[in-house]
Every structure is written in structure tokens, then in C-alpha cells.
């Protein structure tokens, strides 16, 4: 009856809500967990600025040199920001009109970071322009390029990863008009660079990710608590709004709109109708939810069971499926190897899962971190279990985070042998030591 979590704590706990566990005694399993602390906005902005400085000094040089770009241009406009632009500037920045960031690898001199806009990013960037006219920005950009004479100029015209495709046609046309003709042939899609920059986490970010996931799991537990779920009255739509409001009350953004659904045995579906969303005894509840905190996204699917009169736990058939899902998670994490593509990981995971008797395994996992989906390797889709195209051909590298999204299917004896698909989702990180859970996982049903 407890909400059971297996903790793989590779990184020490820091920041908010350290030391509080959701592994509650049985008699408390249905009560709301303790409310965690969330950093105040001012503290949050200061921490995120420090994280950005670390990324610019460590991740950026490595990403540029590994991918062979000696210049990278990120150009966008107010109210139409390049997706990757927001990962390159402090979150409390005002970014009006035309935004230009120039990165140049000066060799032993390090990576030059140049801000050609009216924005003030402090000492994170050199700011050589103090004007107001757009034509001055383009002229200065031309001069900067000519003075440095880069061999390969990365621009964000990605073909596969949407995070790498933020340069608009309008600004691309203006860029080509501003540069001397000889540099036009040096413009290249910066997608490999964007992938390495956006997908790679620093040690401190991985450290803080535990707090993000702990908050995310708290929100799920609060939705499945008996103070919230009034059996026969509360609907899954009510839970969606409760989750969203609870996140807002804590000062958190949702990573996407929350989803709660109900599955019940055939006789109950026929009795109440296929569209009924009222939570009733014997229901299997499922959520798909996530938050964004400290610039990092969470993404979870967890399940709860609503007790019938006389029951004190979920049916054994459902518990067996959750155990099989946990086994599939173990296989998933064990198969991670640097250099493998998403398609290769998918094939290896499914081959091993089938060989070990996992019932109807499916994997549809994606990278996680500064973006909810991508830009790292895609490991399957619900409708594609072999080849995910170019998104599946991205290679795995250390310090990437993922959401381990997968499912198993099997007959539930207590439900007249009906086959049920149980989908679960937990967040993991891959380092040189292997793949591990960021902050535990669900191993037992929440019981309502």
C-alpha cells in the first residue's frame, strides 16, 4: 500500500526539500506528502545565472570544438526567439528588438562571447555596440566576421531537431545580405553544435535535477491523496486542474498541460459509459505530467488504484504488470552505451526485453533537460518501434538526461483476463558511470 520508490542516488542531495522521502508508512500512504520548499524568484534567477556562466565556460567550448565550428551565430527577434537563444542568456533578461549573439573560437584565447543587441547580459558577454539602429548591428556583425575570418560559421537552420531550426527566413536573408559573398559558402547548419550544447548537462545541473524531480513527484503524490480524490465525485479533469493549480501555487511552470486518465474493467466501462471521467472504486488512474524548474524539465507517468470495498491493495495482476515495467526499466538503463544511436538503443533494449520474457515491451523515450523533447537521441515512438529516422540516428553522449517512457501489456486475471497496457515514465541521467534514475521511481501503486 505504500508509495514505494527505489532510490539510485548517484549525486548528493542539495537545494530544496533535501532529505524528505515519499516512502511513507502504510497508514499514511493516502495522505498528502509534506509540501517542499521552492526557491524564491530572486534566488532562482541568481542560481540560474551562475549555472549559465558555468555552461558558457565549459559546455560551449567543448561543443564548438567537438563539432568543428569556429563561429556560431544566434540571431532572432523579440517575441520570436530562437529556441536555443533562451538557453544562452540569463532568464531575467529583457531582450528587445533584434538579438545577435556571436561566438568565436579564438584558440588559446578561449571562446569569445559577443552580444550585438540592446540587451544587457552583464559580464557574461562582451558588448561592443551601444546604439539603437538595426543597420548598425548588421554592419558591426559584418566587421566582426571579417576581422576573425572564420572557416565554418554555424547558423540555426536545423533539418531534424527543432531546437536547432530557429533562424527565420527573413533573418537568414538579411544575414546573407550583410556578409561579404565569400563567407556565404562558409555558412553551415549548426545542428550538431546545438545538440551538444542543449543536451549536455553540467555536474551541478545533474545535481540540481534531483530537486526538480523530487518536486515533480511531490505534485503527483498530492493529486492521488485522499484529501483531493473524492471517490464518486472527483473527475480526472479535476485532477488535471488541481495539478496545474498546485504547480502554479508553488511558483512552478508546467512543462506541458497535465493529463490524467482512468481505465476500468469492461463491466464498469459498460455500466458508466466510455466517456465517464468520474473516479470510482476499482479504477486504475494514470497521469502524464511534468514541470519546469531551474531551467530543467521533468516528465512522468505514474499510476494509482482506487480501492473497492474490502480491498486493501491493488489487484495482483496489476501489480505484476508494474513489476514487469520495472524490469523493462532496468533493461533500458543497462543498455545505455556512449556512441550508440537512438535506433540502436531501441533495438538492443527490445531484443533483450523480449529474450527475458517482458510481456509486449514498447519503448518511446526521448532526451530531457533544457527542452522537454529532444535534442538528444530519440529512442522509439509509440507508433514506431524500429527506425525513427534522423531523430533516431542522433548518438548518445555522457551527461544527457532522458525520460524513460515505456510500457508493458498483459492479462489481468482479476479483470476477467482482460489485457491491459501499463505505461510508466521516469527520469534518468546518463554519465560515464552509466544510466541511473535521477530521483527514484514508482515500484508500488498509489492507493486511493
Please describe what this structure looks like:
- Helix 9 crosses helix 10.
- The chain has two domains: 26-37 and 199-447, Creatinase/methionine aminopeptidase superfamily (Creatine Amidinohydrolase, Alpha-Beta Complex); 43-189, Creatinase/prolidase N-terminal domain (Creatine Amidinohydrolase, Chain A, domain 1, 3-Layer(aba) Sandwich), CATH 3.40.350.
- The strands form four sheets. It has a five-stranded mixed beta sheet.
- It is elongated, with a radius of gyration of 24 Å.
- The longest helix has 27 residues, at 41-67.
- Mean pLDDT is 93; it is low at 1-29.
- The protein starts with 40 loop residues before the first helix and ends with a strand.
- With 448 residues, the protein is α+β, with helices and mostly antiparallel strands.
- A hairpin with a 5-residue loop joins strand 2 (98-105) and strand 3.
- The chain has helices spanning 41-67, 134-148, 169-178, 181-184, 191-199, 203-223, 236-249, 266-272, 316-334, 342-355, 389-392, and strands at 71-77, 98-105, 111-115, 153-155, 187-189, 253-254, 259-263, 284-289, 291-293, 296-297, 300-305, 362-363, 366-368, 400-412, 418-431, 434-437, 446-447.
Amino acid at each position: 500500500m505504500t508509495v514505494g520508490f527505489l532510490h539510485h542516488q548517484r549525486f548528493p542531495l542539495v537545494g530544496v526539500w533535501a532529505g524528505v522521502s515519499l516512502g511513507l508508512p502504510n497508514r499514511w500512504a493516502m495522505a498528502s506528502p509534506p509540501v517542499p520548499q521552492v526557491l524564491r524568484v530572486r534566488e532562482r534567477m541568481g542560481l540560474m545565472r551562475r549555472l549559465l556562466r558555468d555552461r558558457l565556460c565549459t559546455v560551449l567550448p567543448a561543443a564548438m570544438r567537438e563539432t568543428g565550428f569556429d563561429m556560431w551565430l544566434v540571431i532572432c527577434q523579440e517575441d520570436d526567439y530562437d529556441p536555443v537563444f533562451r538557453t544562452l542568456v540569463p532568464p531575467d533578461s529583457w531582450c528587445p528588438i533584434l538579438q545577435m549573439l556571436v561566438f568565436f573560437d579564438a584558440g588559446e584565447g578561449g571562446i569569445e562571447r559577443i552580444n550585438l543587441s540592446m540587451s544587457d547580459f552583464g559580464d557574461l558577454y562582451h558588448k561592443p555596440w551601444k546604439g539603437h539602429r538595426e543597420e548598425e548591428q548588421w554592419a558591426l556583425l559584418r566587421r566582426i566576421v571579417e576581422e576573425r575570418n572564420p572557416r565554418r560559421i554555424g547558423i540555426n537552420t536545423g533539418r531534424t531537431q527543432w531546437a536547432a531550426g530557429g533562424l527565420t527566413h527573413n533573418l537568414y536573408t538579411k544575414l546573407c545580405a550583410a556578409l561579404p559573398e565569400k563567407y556565404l559558402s562558409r555558412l553551415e547548419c549548426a545542428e550538431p553544435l546545438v545538440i551538444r550544447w542543449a543536451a549536455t548537462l553540467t555536474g551541478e545541473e545533474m545535481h540540481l535535477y534531483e530537486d526538480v524531480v523530487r518536486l515533480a513527484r511531490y505534485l503527483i503524490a498530492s493529486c492521488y491523496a485522499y484529501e483531493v480524490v473524492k471517490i464518486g465525485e472527483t473527475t480526472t479533469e479535476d485532477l488535471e486542474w488541481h495539478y496545474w493549480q498546485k504547480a502554479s501555487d508553488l511558483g512552478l511552470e508546467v512543462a506541458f498541460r497535465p493529463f490524467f486518465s482512468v481505465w476500468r474493467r469492461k463491466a464498469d466501462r459498460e455500466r458508466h459509459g466510455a466517456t465517464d471521467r468520474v473516479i470510482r472504486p476499482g479504477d486504475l488512474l494514470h497521469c502524464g505530467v511534468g514541470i519546469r524548474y531551474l531551467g530543467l524539465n521533468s516528465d512522468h507517468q505514474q499510476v494509482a488504484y482506487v480501492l473497492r470495498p474490502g480491498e486493501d491493495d491493488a489487484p495482483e495482476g496489476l501489480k505484476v504488470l508494474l513489476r514487469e515495467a520495472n524490469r523493462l526499466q532496468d533493461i533500458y538503463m543497462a543498455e545505455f552505451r556512449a556512441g550508440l544511436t537512438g535506433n540502436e538503443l531501441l533495438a538492443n533494449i527490445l531484443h533483450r526485453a523480449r529474450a527475458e520474457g517482458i510481456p509486449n515491451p514498447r519503448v518511446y523515450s526521448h532526451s530531457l533537460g533544457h527542452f522537454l523533447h529532444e535534442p538528444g537521441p530519440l529512442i522509439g515512438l509509440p507508433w514506431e518501434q524500429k527506425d525513427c529516422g534522423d531523430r533516431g540516428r542522433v548518438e548518445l553522449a555522457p551527461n544527457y538526461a532522458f525520460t524513460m517512457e515505456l510500457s508493458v501489456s498483459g492479462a489481468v486475471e482479476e479483470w476477467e483476463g482482460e489485457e491491459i497496457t501499463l505505461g510508466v515514465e521516469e527520469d534518468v541521467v546518463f554519465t560515464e558511470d552509466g544510466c541511473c534514475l535521477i530521483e527514484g521511481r514508482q515500484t508500488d501503486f498509489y492507493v486511493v
